[in-house]
Amino acid sequence: MNENTISNKLKGDGIIWMVFFFLCIISIIEVYSASSGLTYKGGYYWGPALKHTSFLLIGVCFMVVVMNIKCKYFKIITPFALLLSFIMLIMVLISGQSTNDASRWLSLFGIQFQPSELAKGSLILAEAQILSAMQTKDGADPRAFKFILSISIPIIMLIFFENFSTAFLLGAVVVMMMVIGRVPGKLIGRLVGIVFLAGALAVSAVMIFGTDKAKETQNKANTVLVEHADNNAKKKEKSAIDKLTHRFDTWKTRIDKFIDNEYVAPNDYDLDNDAQVAHANIAIVSSNIVGKGPGNSVERDFLSQAFSDFIYAIVIEEMGILGAFVVCMLYIILLFRTAIIANRCANTFPALLIMGFALLLVTQAMFNMAVAVGLAPVTGQPLPLISKGGTSTIMNCVYIGIILSVSYSAKKNDSTESSSPATVKAKTA
Description:
Blueprint: H1 6-9, H2 14-34, H3 36-42, H4 47-67, H5 71-95, E1 97-99, E2 102-108, E3 111-113, H6 115-133, E4 135-136, E5 139-140, H7 142-160, H8 164-180, H9 185-209, H10 220-237, H11 240-245, H12 248-259, H13 275-285, H14 311-344, H15 348-372, H16 391-419, H17 421-428
Antiparallel strand pairs: 1-2, 2-3, 4-5
């Protein structure tokens, strides 16, 4: 009877499959609806949705392959994935393709690839392996803390200079995995304190040396010709320090917008300088319990990155408060179901591995939602498995595949234990 269940046919946990299926359906619908700007430029209405669907299908293919890999082989992959991630992150700093003043992509055979996506998975693999290998009856060996930091800090710092939000979220996941892996609390406390101090210093540096470009727009008309004439010269004159700090201006602008809580009358609101936040708020406010319905968004035509960073605002506008709640609950179900699967694992490594990936996906999702509703400053974090994307979509499918792989092996262990003579004897006694 159990062999005929949907869960067994799909090889993995049925609830994880259900969550993944619904997230993909919502993704296709909302990307199709939110991509009106791209369709206008490209002249093909179905183009963005079909492209996104193709990436989802590629991701599903990778997911099926990964879910058929036994958990022990993930340990073999770890050092190669770490080395490749480190090399690619250095390459992206040196010769990465720039979009919106951020160099985050490498071009491989004409396809843009974001090395930070691979680095996130590699770091979780490594941390899970270290924590599982150094477990004692009293918790993780204190040396595990040093090993984790020696791997995490270089990768996170390489990501930091081009993508602060990704580095921050990855660091948060690393700390949460330490807590789950029973690293001594005093070591984690010291780390958190040092990180907060470093963060405060970093924010201070950004506020001191960065420039809020939004507040200097009145001078652009007078300097545009000079800037254009000197543009090439400036690019050549950039020093190494300039390359590392060129994102300060963007960060300062975002921080200023977030902390500026002064009331602005609707008639005085600058939609040009605050377009993303303003139109996201309009999309949310104009919704109701059930929303306007799929494909009926108005703000998608005005909200930049409506199909990516701010797709949750479009979800709220079209699906209402109820739809927003359902999407949020899908991620929460994913986290709690993964925790149940981890609790069934016979070994520590698979349990820590899938909890790390679940925390990565859910933490990123919650942060994206917080940005969309104005609870966090604007970042470039997409909504996992829903936002339009290439590398991120494929890698998120791979992470789900790893969770499904572990869930299948955990289920097999449960069935083996329940059918063993010792277990049967114990149950009948």
